[in-house]
Structures are given as C-alpha cells and as structure tokens.
C-alpha cells in the first residue's frame, strides 16, 4: 500500500501535448476544498483510496479505478484510508476531448463523462503510460496513448453534457452576481451589498448562487481567483504579484488556497511551466523494442497486460475496502477500442 512518508506531487505540462496538464501525486493528509477545473479530470488511482464529493454524494475510487470530473463541476478530494492515496492524472482541454469524441465515437452534443467513477484497470494503466511517455519525452507515445485512453473512457462512460441554460429568476440573478465578482475580483463587494445592487436579499442570492454554480459566492470567488492566478503564472508573473492582482492579501495567502485547489504551491507550479517554455524542440522516435512492448501493452486484452511500475497496485480482496462504483461496464476481455 501507500505507506507512510512525505507527501509529494508534480503538476506539469509536456510541450508535445498542448492543452493537457499532467499530475503525479501521493497525498496522505491533503484535502482539496470544493473547486472546479476548466479542463476534464481523468485521475487513475494507483494505491490507497480517494474520496471526493461530487453531485451531492461522496464517491470512492480505489486501485484500478478512475475519478472522472467534467469541466466546471464542483468537487472535493481527500484520503479515504489512513495511508492516503497515490495517483496519476491527465487534464485534457474540452476542445481536445470534443475532437477525439467526434473522430472516434458516435456521441452528439458536448461530450463528457456520465459517472464520476469508473472501475477499469486497463484504462487506468493507459493513463499511467501517458505520464511515463511524457516524462521520457516520447511525443508519439504520449499523444497516441492519451487519445486511446480518452476514446475508451468515452465509449465506456461517455454521454452528452447537459446544457446549462439561464431560465429562472434565481439563475439569472446568480449569473449577474458572477459577472460582478469576475469584474471586481480584487475588491469584491459584501454579500449584502452585492444582493442589494441586484435587487435581492442576501439569503435569496446565496441560495440562487449555490443552486446554479454548486458553491456559495465566496467559495466560487476563491476558485476563480486561483484560476486567474494560474493564467498569470503561466504568463510569467511572479507569485507575489499574481497574488495581489487577483485579490489575495499576499503570496502566502495565494499559496494556501492554490495548494488546496491545484495540489502544489504556486512556485512549484510556475517552475514546471518555465521548464516547458525553456525546453528545446526535439523529435524523439521510439526504438523498435519500445514499439513492440508498447504495442503489446496497448492492444492486448486487459487481463493479459502486465502491470505498470507506476500503475495500479493489486486490488483489495476485502469488499469493505472498495465501494461498488456506478458505470463499471468494462468488457471482460476487451482490448483497446479501435478508432
């Protein structure tokens, strides 16, 4: 199992996978507050157990399972066992997922995931292989395996995302409040002032905002500030200046919230971005041995695929260690879906 020791995480980008964030992490005490992502979350659990609140209930993802979160969907994250959890994750942009869905599936509308947890050790191994290929600088493998993994997940657990439409008076007020907060991020009004300016009572606005966006205005604002800070850090703004620009009191204030949402401090996050920008373009072609091994691992049936070094550990035999997961529809001997 995960064991004891220091928590560690790496959140980075690979220049040959534009529009995709990558993460390897091992957490024990880490608790992610309610937040959202602009990209999809595809997190493959290798060891331990992650619990995350999603759509009104706690979800459980153990070894061989994937936590799947659609863009702009509020969720949390924490360890479900004392030893914590270890996982690898890819965060593809909505445009990339839509491109893959259009090419390889029959999904209509905006594609997304139906169930937040999918028990599929084979897809989990593919995610870890994407991360390994990116670390090794193998662009051909990383891009190929990412597309294969997303295709498989969409075929097993994909569907059209519901379109969020502003129809009710409450949702219209919530949308107006969100616009105000976006424009005044560094100096937002109080709830009472915001409600009065919109012609609503504080509790009516609070209720409408939570119903529309899944979190109260102050939590949404913190999440939005971290998103904007990420863009500033990506552009080269130093953390201290980014903190003030988005409305945090100082760099330590930014770092506390940034780590609770992104998983790493802003300084570590920016250093990885700088490494990508400084990387020299290069073309790496896989060797014949690597190609043969990768072909066997990618296209062999799941039960015949050898476990990856950083892939899921042996799954627990005690039923109490793993909650049943919805949407587990993996064919017993299916290989990687063809395009």
TrEMBL record:
Alphabetical list of PROSITE patterns matching this protein: HTH_ARAC_FAMILY_2
Biased composition (Low complexity): 325-339
SMART domains the record matches: HTH_ARAC
Record-linked SUPFAM superfamilies: Homeodomain-like, Regulatory protein AraC
Transmembrane domains' residue ranges: none
Domain HTH araC/xylS-type: 175-272
Residue ranges of the region described as Disordered: 272-339
Protein name as annotated: AraC family ligand binding domain-containing protein
Provenance organism: Streptomyces anandii
């Amino acid at each position: 199992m995960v064991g004891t020791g220091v928590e560690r995480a790496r959140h980075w980008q690979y220049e040959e996978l534009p529009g995709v964030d990558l993460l390897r992490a091992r957490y024990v005490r880490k608790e992610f507050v309610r937040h959202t992502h602009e990209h999809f979350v595809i997190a493959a659990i290798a060891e331990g157990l992650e619990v995350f609140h999603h759509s009104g209930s706690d979800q459980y993802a153990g070894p061989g399972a994937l936590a799947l979160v659609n863009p702009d969907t509020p969720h949390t994250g924490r360890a479900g066992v004392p030893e914590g959890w270890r996982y690898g994750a890819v965060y593809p942009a909505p445009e990339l997922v839509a491109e893959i869905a259009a090419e390889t599936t029959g999904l209509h509308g905006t594609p997304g995931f139906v169930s937040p947890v999918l028990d599929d050790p084979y897809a989990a191994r593919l995610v870890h292989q994407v991360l390994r290929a990116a670390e090794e600088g193998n662009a051909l493998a990383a891009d190929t395996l990412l597309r294969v993994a997303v295709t498989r997940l969409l075929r097993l657990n994909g569907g059209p995302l519901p379109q969020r439409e502003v129809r009710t008076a409450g949702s219209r007020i919530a949308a107006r409040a969100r616009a105000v907060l976006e424009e005044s991020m560094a100096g937002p009004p109080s709830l009472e002032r915001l409600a009065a300016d919109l012609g609503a009572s504080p509790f009516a606005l609070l209720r409408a905002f939570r119903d529309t966006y899944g979190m109260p205005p102050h939590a949404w604002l913190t999440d939005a500030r971290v998103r904007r800070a990420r863009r500033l850090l990506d552009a080269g703004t130093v953390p201290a200046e980014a903190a003030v620009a988005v409305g945090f009191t100082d760099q330590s204030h930014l770092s506390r919230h940034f780590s609770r949402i992104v998983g790493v401090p802003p300084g570590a996050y920016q250093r990885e971005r700088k490494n990508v920008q400084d990387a020299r373009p290069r073309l790496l072609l896989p060797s014949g041995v690597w190609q043969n091994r990768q072909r066997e691992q990618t296209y062999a049936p799941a039960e015949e695929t050898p476990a990856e070094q950083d892939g899921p550990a042996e799954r627990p035999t005690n039923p109490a260690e793993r909650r049943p997961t919805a949407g587990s529809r993996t064919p017993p001997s299916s290989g990687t879906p063809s395009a």
